[in-house]
Amino acid sequence: MNLSHTENIYLPKVAIIDRVMDEIAEVKTFYWHFDDPAEQGAFSRFRPGQFAQISLFGVGEFPSSLPPSPTEEETFFTIRQVGSCTAALHKLKAGDKFAVRGPYGNGFQMEDYYGKNLVFVAGGIGLIPLRSCIVYALKHRDKYERIQIYYGSKTPKELMYSANLREWVESAGVECSLTVDRSEEGWTGNVGVVGSLFRKPGVQVPVDNTIAFVCGPPIMFRFVIKDLLELGFQERNIVSTLERYMKCGVGKCGHCCIGMAYVCADGPVFTYEQIKKLGENI
Amino acid sequence: MKARILGRADVLEIVDQLRRQGYEVIAPFCGRGRDTFFDTVTDGNCAEIQIHLPNPYYPPKRFVLPHIERLLKVQSSRDKILIEPTYESPKLAIFGIRSCDVAGISHLDRFYLGREFRDIYYEKRRSNLFLVNIVCTDLNQDINDECFCVCADTGPAARDHFDLQLMDLGDDFMAVAGTPAGEAMFANPIFRQGVEADIEKRRAILNNVRKRFKSTTSWFSATVRYISLGEVLEKTWEEIGNRCFECGGCTYVCPACTCFTVSDRRVGPDEIERVRIWDACALGGFTRMAGGHNPRKAVHDRRNRRFFRKLAHYFIQRELSMACVGCGRCADVCHGDIGMPSVVEIIRRAAAEIDKHELVTH
Lengths: 282, 362
Hints:
In chain A, the strands form three sheets. Chain A has a seven-stranded mixed sheet with strand order 10-9-8-7-11-12-15, with helices on both faces. Chain A folds into two domains: 13-104, Translation factors (Elongation Factor Tu (Ef-tu), domain 3); 110-241, Nucleotide-binding domain of ferredoxin-NADP reductase (FNR) module (Rossmann fold). Chain A has helices at 37-43, 84-90, 127-139, 162-170, 218-231, 263-266, 272-278, and strands spanning 13-24, 27-34, 51-56, 60-65, 75-80, 97-104, 117-123, 147-153, 175-180, 190-191, 210-215, 238-241, 257-258, 261-262, 269-271. By secondary structure, chain A is an alpha/beta fold. Chain B is of the alpha/beta class and 362 residues long. In chain B, the strands form two sheets. Chain B has a seven-stranded mixed sheet. A four-stranded antiparallel sheet of chain B has the order 5-4-11-10, with no helix packed on it. At the A-B interface, strand 4, strand 6 and strand 13 of A face strand 4, strand 5, helix 3, strand 10 and strand 11 of B.
C-alpha cells in the first residue's frame, strides 16, 4: 500500500482568535483565522450547513456549525457555553490559539434551490447554522424568488445576531418577522411561538416552489413541522440540520449514527422526509 | 490459491520463520481453565503456542485497532501549539487467528479504509500485519457451543483475507497462500507439494466439522430482513433491552465493532496526548450531548441500535458484510443472554407470534 499521499483525517490545524464578541447571555462569537494561510484558503470554500471540529487541547474536541457564509471575509464560530470544551473556548481572548479541522458534512445545496422561494424558520440558537444560508442567499439575491425569515427566541434579549436582524428587517429584499415567547419592556413585536407568525394577518407563507429551512430546539422543531405540513409543505421540501456530538466528524467513531445515517458524513443536512425514515428520535 | 503440505512437527517453524523475517509474532496460549489469550512469542514461550484451543475472548482486533491508541502529541500553551501526529506500525504477524477473526479484520478494512475518508492510523498498522489463519478442526477444542461462523458464512475455513492458512489434516498440515507474501513463505524447505489425497482429506474434515455447530442462527437471513424493514416490534426490543445489563461487554469482545471515543490527557505541564478509546453503543452516555440532551436514552433503543447497525441490509450493502462474524463471543460473555444467537431466536419467536394472528382471507 502506498501511504505517502494519505491525509490524516484527525489532524486539526492551529487557529488564532482575532476577537471575541458577546452575542447573548452565555453565547459568544469568536472570529478567527488559521495560522497557515493555505489552510485558510482551503477552508473558506465551505458550504452553508457544513460544520467543523474545534479542539481545545487538554479538554477535548467538539463539532460546531459554521455561521458565516462562504461569501463573507471573516470566519467565525458562535458558541453557547454548555460543557467543558465550550467553557474552555469561552475563556479564550484575542491572540489565543486553538485548533480546527473541517469543513465536514454535506451542507445545504443552495445551488439546487435557485429559482425557488426560501423560508427560514429558526428558534433560539438554531439561527446559527441558518445564518450562513441567509447571508449566502441575500448575496445571491437574484437567484431566488421570495425570501422569508421567521425567527423566535424566549425573550427579546435572546435574539441572536442583532445587527443582522436589523438589516434583514429593514431590507426590501427579505421579509423578516420576529417573535418572542415572553415580552420585556421595550418590545413592540409579536409575542408567541414561531409558528404563530405564520397565521398573523398580512403574513403569507409561499408553499409552492418553496424550500423551508427549519432549525431550533426539538420541541420547536416538532411544532413548526406540524405547522408547515398543515400549510401544505411537502416533506421533501423541508430541510434541517441535525445535531450530534460527533467525536470524529468523518464517519468512523459511530457516535452520530442515527438509523442508516452517519449525521457527520451523510448529513448534517437532511430533508424532513429523510429524517422521518431514520427511525430514531432526533 | 497455492497449497503446500508440511509435517506436524514443522508447524511452529513458521513462527520462527516469521520471527527471522523481523516480525513480532502474536500467538494463542492457554491460561488456566477456559482462559486463553494472544501474546507475543518469545524464545521462552514458543514451545507453549497452542494450535487447537478455545478462541480467546479478547479478540485480536486490538492489534490493528488498539483499545487505547494515541493519535496526536500536542505541546500546548496559550500562544503556542505544536501538533504532532503519532503513528505506530510495528511489523506484526498473528499466528493462529481463527477464520471468524480474519473476517472481523476484513470487515474493519472495509469500514476504516472504505468510503470517503481513510483512517491513516488503521491503514499504517494494517499494512504491516501478516495473518496466519488456523482452520478450526478440533471438535472439542476449537469449536464451542456458541460458535456460528457457518451461519455468518465466515468459517470454519476462511476463504480469503489471510496471508497463510493452516489446516490440521492429522499427521500433516495443509498450508494455503492467500497473498504473495504468504506464498513467499513456501520457499522454506519444510513445505512440500501435496497430492490429490490431501485435498480429499481437507474436504472430508471440513464436511465433518460443519456438523459440529450447535448454535441456532438458522433464522439469520430472516432476521436481517425483519431488522432491515423495521418489522421487529417495539415490545420485542423492550424484551431484549430488559435483559441488558449495559456492561458493554458484547462490544468489547466483538471483532467487528468499530466505535470509539476521543479523549485528551495531560502528560506534562504543557503536553497533551489525544487518544482514541473503544466505545460501546450499549452505554447510556454514548449519544449524550453537551447540556445533557440524550436522544437515545432507553436501553432497548440502544439494543435496537446495535443489532440494526450489525444486520441492516443498508450497512451490509455498504460494507459487503454483516458486522457479525459468528464468533459467538457476545453469547459467551453476556450476563443477560442477549448475544447474537439469542437475539435471532427472540426475534424468531416474536415473528411466529405475529404470524399466529395473521388473518388470511380469500
